[in-house]
Amino acid sequence: MTDQGAHFYRCDFQVHTPRDLRWAGANAVTDDERLAYGRSLVQACRERGIQAIAVTDHHCMTFLPFIRSAATEETDAQGDELPEGQRLIVFPGMELTLGVPCQALLLFDADFPDDMFSLAMTALSITQNSSENAKSCDVEQLSHIQSLLQLKDELDKHQYLRGRYTVLPNVTGEGEHSLLRKGQHGKYKEMPWVGGYTDGNASKLKPRVINIVTGKEKEWGHKRIACIQTSDSRREDHATLGEPSTWIKWAKPTAEALRQACLAEESRISREAPHVPETYIARVSISNSTFLGPLDLEFNPQYSALIGGRGTGKSTVLEYVRWALCDQPPLGDEDQTPNYQARRGRLIDGTLKTLRASVEVVYILNNVAHLVRRQATDGSLQMKVGHGDLAPCTEEDVRALLPIQAYSQKQLSDVSVRVEELTRFITAPIKGDLDRLQRKAADRANHIREAYATRQRFRDLSRLLQNRMLEERSITQQADAIRSSLTGLSDEDRALLGQGQSYNAAQAQVAAWRAGASTLADRARELHALAASQRRALSPAPEQPEALKEPLAAAHAAYDGLVADALRQIDALTNAAAAIGEGEASGPFAVWEAGYRDFKLRYDQAASRSSSHTEKLKQLQNLEAKLAELAAETTRVRETLSTLQTAEEKYRTAHDEWQSALSEQDDLIDRECSALTERSGGLIRVSVRRYANAENFITSLRQALAGSRLQTAKQEALGEAIISASDPKQSWQSALTELEALADYDEGRSQAESRPQTPHLQGLGLTATDTERIANTLKPEDWLALSLIPIESAPVYEFRAREGDYIPFENASAGQQATALLKTLLNQSGPPLIIDQPEEDLDNPVMLEIVEQIWDAKTLRQIIFASHNANLVVNGDAELVAWFGYRTDNDQSRGTIHGVGAIDVEDARNAIKRIMEGGDAAFRLRREKYGF
């Protein structure tokens, strides 16, 4: 889609034909030959990316109809006729040799009729060879035209020419064809033109010439003109075509558009490929509205201005766009600021909801169209990406993928009372990177939660193991004592019973080995499943690029072989480990099991022969059974612990990575603060105070300690003490460490375990009673949640009152704040910037400063303003102007768009003058900059 505003076109305004006397190539005399030349020229332009040319033979316009025909008949790759907007633009013209003396290019509107070419030549008293001749006649100086002012007078005598042409004198240097040679300053000052052309690259102009055309020479009237560089192409092979080119912006290819471009050279002319935002809102469509009715409006990728009387719908359209793109207006403060959310809600309910209307916005993101449709009935959203299908999405999806920066009327003046709004100036340009780092931090936090659960299990199992080992030692000693007390046994039976402890210990060790083998088998099976899935997912080797097809195939084979070999080795490991863990039929483990069973049989027989110690033997058997059970449990716990040995290390690693992600965010914001300070031209100074905001941390702590009877004031004082410490980060970490110890403490778990010492917490103002209350209330899971609430950094904003003197930003006046913030917004790249009536926030003396910033700003980001200020629209050089009015005169109940265009379109200029106060003055200012 292409809007009706102004766009850049790559131009070459000095292209010659075989009719030229210095043409390098074959002649073209017949109509067929001339049309063939036209087709070759059009094709050459297409190949070189030239979008517009001026055909400017000396005092001759013979070839123009043929070149126009060739441009009209051009087709696309499928043989279909090109849409008019994609065809090569051909400006009719001539190169003139004047009696001034200098050369000049006379250019007409691109739609200047063919049958008026001869009239244009007659107006200048040019006599030319018949069109049947191969060449034009020798160039004769138009001696009767002694000045460029006289040239205008001569041309304006003819109604059919007036307003349909412009002139570019030669300003290449100080040679015989240039207007800038010595003695010509008077004629330069009086000329009514605002541009000139150079043969070749303008960057090679001499310093004196550059000073003249940039308005730095008093003798030359401080008259500034735009320089358009041309190729002076005159070769059959078109080798020099478009070398160099000039990019010129217009809405319609007219002489007036070229004049307007010269009047705004900074905005509309570029001698290098210009940068145009690739992220922009392309269109808004409203299915229906009680105020505006159905509406479609296309925006320019650079600067679009919505103008019109008050209450005609400009602000309404912007609010519809913001609503569809889920831009969240700030909540109002009853005492200080308007409630923008409530205001928008009333607008949607009152103008769209009753009609069950929807709003569609097309947003271009790096040449990919994203369509968002939002229903007014329930606010539901759908999104279509590229050529995909419409699918439901969330507000967060839209905000994350299609961001904007938008401000309502006078909202810039309200920004300083909301820290989050000021912070948006920092975060908006880096939102993508910031979102990535926030996702990274959230991912690391999940790793912490997983690692923490594993670490807690490791700690619990370690305590369990200690308890079981203590119980095992006690039972072992009890069993030994009972064995020692047995009497009346044969020496052989006593020796057999005495071996019971060593056999049981060996059996426990064998059980541990078998458990280890089972763990290996389980892990090997998991690894086998992973390797098998990778092999199943293995795609064939790519066939392209052809030059590296063989190494790609070899790499594919090597990887496939690696996975296949891994599967074989994993199978072998699994089988060997399973044989041990699940009980092998033969081998050393089987031999041991058989020997142990034989010993237990003999052991039980020996014990049964001691009839006089029946009760003791029964106790011994119970103790040995319990001991075997404990040994088995201890083996399982040890084996589990062996798989958790790295739990503490993994937790620490995850925690360090989370901290690192937080630091990356702070570093990114810190850099952006410095960049924001620079973009504001030093008007705003922003710095970051690390670990300065404990509000969320203390809120989480208060929730975790609900019911502890720890005073709220003490908790808040704890947060203040942390951020006031000489090293807030270390203070925060130390406090968390001691809080974790208190959360882990269980008074009933072990009488020997005393309550942890908390010197740091006490140093931060808590008493022993306070820490006891924390220990009795804080749970490990609550501590984990608390540990993942960072002490946040806080940006500090200052305003430069005068050179070297900064004051708190909130102490600056509303106008000073808004000016500084708008300058900052215009200096930064980022998503589309939408502001409703920015002039209402600004002081008048800075308006022209803002205007000049807009020229550069619209190369960085899309700008959409609704405005009543003519200077913002005219001298800001809006690429697209949409003018609003009422559907019926004197009926202010319904608005509409009356027209769309750009400043080089007469209807748009007239609308600006008619609608906007100061419209005429703004156009006069535009001219006066150039000495008119």
UniProtKB/TrEMBL annotation:
UniProt entry keywords in alphabetical sequence? Coiled coil
Q: Which residue range or ranges hold the Rad50/SbcC-type AAA domain? A: 284-474
GO MF annotation, one: ATP hydrolysis activity
Kindly provide the name given to this protein in its UniProt entry: Rad50/SbcC-type AAA domain-containing protein
Task: Name a single GO biological process.
Answer: double-strand break repair
Q: Which InterPro entries match?
A: P-loop_NTPase, Pol/histidinol_Pase-like, Rad50/SbcC_AAA, TrlF_ATPase
Kindly list any coiled-coil regions of this protein.
613-640
